Amino acid sequence: MKHRMPAVVLSIAALAFPLCAADLAPERPRIGKVDIFKASDLRPGMQGTAWTVFAGTTPEPVPVEILGLWKNAWGPRQDVILAKLGGKAARTNVAGGMSGSPVYIDGKLVGAVALRLSVFSPDAICGITPAELMLEIEDLDQSRPADARTPDKVAARTQAALPGDLLAQAVAAGALPNLPRQAPMMVPIETPLMFSGFHDNVLRDFGPLFEQLGITAVQGGGASSATYTAKPAPGWQTSLRPGDPVAGVLVSGDMSITGLGTVTYNDGQRVLAFGHPFFNLGPVNMPMSQGEVVMTLASQFQPNKFANATEIVGALHQDRHSGIMGVLGEESAMIPVTVQVRSFGENNVLRSQKDTRFNVFVQQKWTPYLMMLTLFNSLSQLNEFTDEATYRLTADVELSGGPSLSLSTMQASGEMPMPAPMVLAGWWGDKFNRLYMNAVNSPSVKRVSVTVDLLPERRVASIENAWLSAPEARPGDDVAVKVFLRPYRGESLERNFTLKIPAGLAKGEHKIVLSDADTINRMQNVAGMVNHYIDLPQTVSLINQERSNNKLYVSLLDASPTAYYDDKTFPSLPASVLNVMQSGRGSNRSLITSPDSASEQMSLPFDYVITGSYSLNIMVK
After folding, report:
1. Residue-level pLDDT at 446
2. Over the chain, what is the mean pLDDT?
3. Which residues make Cβ contacts (< 8 Å) with residue 528, sequence separation at least 6?
4. Per-position DSSP letters for 530-598, written without gaps between them
5. DSSP output for 435-497
6. Which of 151, 387, 392, 591 yields a CA-CA distance of 20 to 30 A from 413?
7. Which of 50, 32, 53 is nearest to 244 (CA)?
8. 236-251: per-residue pLDDT in tens?
9. Whole-angstrom Cα distance, residue 14 to residue 22?
10. What is the pLDDT of residues 539-579, one digit of tens each?
């Protein structure tokens, strides 16, 4: 005989099951102020819930067991909460991109998942930055941390052949061996820096430098709807709920670089995230965007979220030891850049053209490096690339409130093992490094436009020989000159020109010097480097005075001293004037002198990289 359960019992059971379901699926945290669970009130064994996104845009609950309080782990009176993650996180481990995942106990905010324990750990052990420490970010002044993570802090070997410190740092970082990491203690979760639109060799060449800065370079993506502007997208008012992906934007557009983390707290206007520093820059003005997680890679060695940055919804204003803080609805200034790459075939026939648009984050030490990185990437995706190619660059850098930069150079493959695009990118980044690192004032760059022509052969020519039509001349005479240049694997180049002897030139023997740009630039560049208090207009003037390496320069040499001071050149100085200048200068303003004075008379354009020099003697009657 079958026994039936009474209807009253069934009714009670039906009511109980929804309650159990509700216990298993806690309510997703909302935007707004929340109570704080003080770290001092925590006890081992307490159960809580973390929120993070494993795929898509919706955060999922993760069970958390409190293990204890690690005293003074972040510094004096700065504790870290040790905890063990369950659920999906037990399989994925503590992944890059989880930084900032909020942890709650009884509806109160405990803090943000921010640290992980070594590698190959069988348990998903994490460190939680207490919410009290993160809330301190809102009260900080405008001080800048001394230990900011920027490319200039990476130890680099001295390499005189490289065109600038930025390139030397990148190469030095790439040359270091990837030794197994020894990290038995808690370390900040590596922030995945997502590169969208970048060639894999760019990540391979520049990735080691980011690793030394605590950043993992990964291939990612970006939404095309918001790439060309830093203006907040519609709906920003309700964006970035606790547990949502959030990203700091370094580059946006046809290529993008974004650092991914998780939102910890949102009071309706200000957003806290990461639970550890991004670059520890202090006050910043960086676009802040939403994100979408494609997948979370489960790994005991290097678990990571693979994600896309989506719409910009505000600006990051603080990058501090215990997290980052952004403000919804605010817009960050970025530098719009246009790069046009043209490929030429035989007889200078245009074969193809590729235009790239993107914006670059403004920061004195990061902007030059990002300019170098993006130009190198623009040149690394060409099907027309050949090892023997030559790159011809022209660019305009428009500045607010003063003269702009007009730049040109050529770079060809040479004896160095480093490819020409890398050397060209280093030259390009060095110009911005000089702009942003002057000790007087910072530039305001309005826009940048670059054109790079890819020529099909190695165009390098050295000055080999020259002769005059007559060994004597009078002031005001025209003298015929012939110069011979030896190109790389080609027949000798011959160029005829007429040099006019200046009317006021003194009688006697003089030298006519035919030289490359480096010979003319050398002394003036030294003067600019030794004076540390050159202001922005002087820096722009010095850069604009630099001669281009695809021209041959003709100068008259006089046996009288020249003085170089800041961006000024004083040729043929009398000894009495030079003595006054040397005695009256400040101790921090160096005066550079040379025994001769070169008076530049003319320049001859070539479609080659010109190297070397040659001297001719002429008697002026």
Report:
1. 95
2. 82
3. 534, 539, 542, 566, 567
4. H-TT--HHHHHHHHHHSPPTTEEEEEEEESS-EEEETTEEE-S--HHHHHHHHHHS-TTS--EEESSEE
5. HHT-SS----EEEEEEEEEEESS--EEEEEEEEES-SEE-TT-EEEEEEEEEETTSPPEEEEE
6. 151
7. 53
8. 999 999 999 999 999 9
9. 13
10. 888 899 899 999 999 988 776 666 666 656 666 656 656 56
Neighbours of 407 (CB within 10 A): 18
Q: Measured between alpha carbons, how far is 379 from 393 in angstroms, rounded to an integer?
A: 11
Question: What integer is the mean pLDDT of 142-161?
Answer: 55
Query: How many residues does the structure list for the chain?
Result: 621
Residue closest to 340 by CA, chosen among 303, 382, 306, 310: 382
Structure tokens at 201: 């060799």
- Residues 6 or more apart whose CB falls under 8 angstroms from that of 172 comprise 154, 155, 156, 157, 159
Mean pLDDT value across residues 478-489: 94
Relative orientation angle of helices 200-212 and 165-175, to the nearest 10 degrees:
90
> CA-CA distance, 48 to 593, in Å (whole number)?
71
Other residues' Cβ atoms within 10 Å of the Cβ of residue 330? 18
What is the DSSP pairing of strand 125-130 with strand 186-188?
A: unpaired
- How does 33-53 read in b/e, with b if 16+ C-beta sit within 10 Å? ebebbebeebeeebebbbbbb
What is the enclosing helix (H) or strand (E) of 518?
helix 517-530
| Residue 96 DSSP label | B
What amino acid occupies position 249?
Answer: V
CATH topology of domain 39-134: Thrombin, subunit H (2.40.10)
pLDDT at 557: 79
pLDDT at 524: 63
User: Phi and psi (nearest 5°) for 499?
Assistant: -110, 125
Q: In this predicted structure, what is the pLDDT of residue 599? A: 77
Residue type, 404: S
Tell me where in the chain the CATH 2.40.10.10 domain(s) lie: 39-134
Is residue 50 within 8 Å of 89, Cβ to Cβ?
A: yes
pLDDT-derived band at 527 (thresholds 50, 70, 90) equals: low
Q: Which strands, in side-by-side order, build the sheet including 478-487? A: 493-500, 478-487, 460-468, 609-611
| Amino acid symbol at 392 | R
Other Cβ atoms closer than 10 A to 414 = 15
Q: Which residues of 265-292 are buried (b: 16+ CB within 10 A; e: fewer)?
A: bbeeebbbbbbbbbbbbbebbbbbbbbb
DSSP string, 144-178: --TT---GGGS-----TTSS-HHHHHHHHHHHS--
Q: What tokens does 77 get?
A: 């009176």
Structure tokens at 416: 């160095």
- Coil, helix or strand at residue 9: helix
